[in-house]
Specification:
Number of domains: 1
Largest sheet: 6 strands, mixed
Order of helices and strands: EEEHEHHEHEEEEHEH
CATH class: Alpha Beta
Helix content: 25-40%
Shape: globular
Number of strands: 10
CATH topology: Spore Coat Polysaccharide Biosynthesis Protein SpsA, Chain A
Strand content: 15-25%
Distance between the termini: 26 Å
CATH architecture: Alpha-Beta Complex
Radius of gyration: 19 Å
Length: 240
């Protein structure tokens, strides 16, 4: 099976400037995903493509063993561009460049590095086994549940339960299971791109891999501080 690995790292982050190359544990954040990708690629004969418009990020990646001739178009470098479009462009380029047809694309998110090779191996087995699924993404158990303790705005400055069942659930434990998308990794089947999908949340055509360990993405400065504390202080239950 031909697998392409994409690592997408935009240079213009506003929430946490330069977050893709900030230092954590003596190396830039992107290095964690590069190392994960290299190990997976060695085990599965995959190619790795870096998608960035930033020469600075490209240089940092090269110092950590990832040189990629692909360059993300400026039209796909804005903060309003969906990630699927970015990955699709890299996939189309890779098929021409490597002269291969990729059955799967594995995307590793730089800002959510708390994943293991075991996670990836089990997720790969699942997406291959579920013929009807066109995409798999990693999730974590949610602390809140829209059927029980999450509300949304209604009319006249009032609120209502985010998902209102026919019969109310009186405890979170009996409510339907829900998950947080932690953004760490995604497996896309070839059909996902060929059929032109733009979102991973496909009704009855997507599946998830539930992480049993801590995983979250860096979206604001406090996330970076917490990630740095966990990794540098040796407080994780996994090795990254």
């Amino acid at each position: 099976m031909n697998i392409l690995i994409t690592i997408c790292a935009r240079g213009g982050s506003k929430g946490v400037p330069n977050k893709n190359i900030l230092d954590i544990g003596g190396k830039p954040l992107i290095a964690y995903s590069i190392q994960t990708a290299q190990t997976f690629a060695k085990n599965h004969g995959a190619e790795i493509v870096l998608s960035t418009e930033s020469e600075k990020i490209r240089g940092v990646a090269a110092k950590h063993g990832l040189e990629s001739p692909y360059r993300r178009p400026e039209s796909l470098a804005g903060d309003r561009v969906g990630k699927v479009a970015v990955i699709r462009d890299a996939w189309e380029w890779a098929e021409k460049h490597f002269e291969k047809s990729y059955e799967l694309v594995l995307d590793l998110d730089v800002t959510s590095p708390l994943r293991t090779q075991k996670d990836l191996a089990e997720a790969l087995e699942k997406i291959q086994r579920l013929k009807e699924a066109k995409v798999l993404y990693s999730v974590s158990h949610a602390r809140r549940n829209p059927y029980f303790n999450m509300v949304e705005e209604a009319d006249n400055d009032l609120v209502k339960l985010a998902k209102r069942p026919d019969k109310p659930f009186l405890s979170r434990q009996v409510a339907p299971k829900v998950y947080d998308i932690n953004g760490s990794f995604y497996f896309y089947k070839r059909e996902f791109f060929v059929e032109g999908f733009e979102s991973v949340t496909l009704d009855h055509q997507s599946t998830v891999y539930v992480m049993t360990h801590l995983c979250f993405d860096i979206d604001e400065p406090l996330d970076y501080t917490f990630m740095k504390f966990l990794i540098e202080g040796g407080h994780l239950e996994i090795e990254v």
